[in-house]
Amino acid sequence: MFEIVLGRVSEWVQNLESVTHTPENQRRKIVHSKDKKIGLKSQSAMEYLTTYGWAILILAIVLVAFFSLGVFNPYTFSPKASPGSCQILRPNSPGTTASEIGPCTNEIPQFIASFTQNGEYISGNSIALLNNLPSFTISAWVDSINGNFIYSEGIPDATLNLEVTSAGAIEIHLWNQGYSGNWYFSNSSTGAVKAGSINFITVTLSNGGVGTGNVIFYVNGKFVSSTTGQSEFNPTTHYYAIGNNVGSLYGGLQSAYQYNGSIANLQIYNATLSKGEIQALYTEGIGGAPIDLQNLVGWWPLNGNSKDYSGNGNNGVPTNVIFTSSWENGYTAP
Prior knowledge:
The chain is an alpha+beta fold and about 325 residues long.
């Protein structure tokens, strides 16, 4: 009897051990299986990175290179105006009635002028474009890296300078023989011209005289600020320079203020353009034609050359200037 009971107890203990230990073993097997699967996935991920990592890196480098070359810029492959495709004709002589000739479609130019402060400038011996005038307008598309003179005129020293400063202000310096101290400096607020982008800048003078006049600055067709100014006046003024100080080029004693950046579509009028006209010029874009032909005294598109296409014969002579075709980065059409 005792042996029967002992056998029953032993059987019961064995069954209990079986119930207790079997799930643990199974759990261990499951955990081991999961660890094995995770290890296989990690190994597969490393093999993928090893196989395709260099290809991904090379693709990223190529995309960055294409972006820097302007491949993704919509203007890179846009139709472009060839040099001299649009110009002003004055059949009866400079300063007379004008009309446009050529396909003046406002297409963006093939080239713009590039200046790097390494002796580049455009100069010309012409009539005094703005000397002793009570009103004028100067406009241009510029990408200023650290500023300096966009346009100047005078002889032997400069009597008018248009500058974009390194702080992004537009300045115009006007010399008048009858003004005490001669120079009058007018400037916009700093930061008006944004570095790294092509801006359309305009400065106008109205009611100018000796020590008097109203100067207005515009950027991208919008009013920036206004201040006082005066007319330029020197009886001997008859030279101009683009991208440098004319007062350092023809025996003058002034320092060179070489421009650093790019310039396109420089237009000069002997009248004060209205806010609406300036907005219209901006809307035409970097390749836009002049808007007031009768009062236009100089127009240098700088599309591959330094010719004056206003019909007034104020052609410039380029010195070391590079007319670059890779300029679209930084330009946003109006």
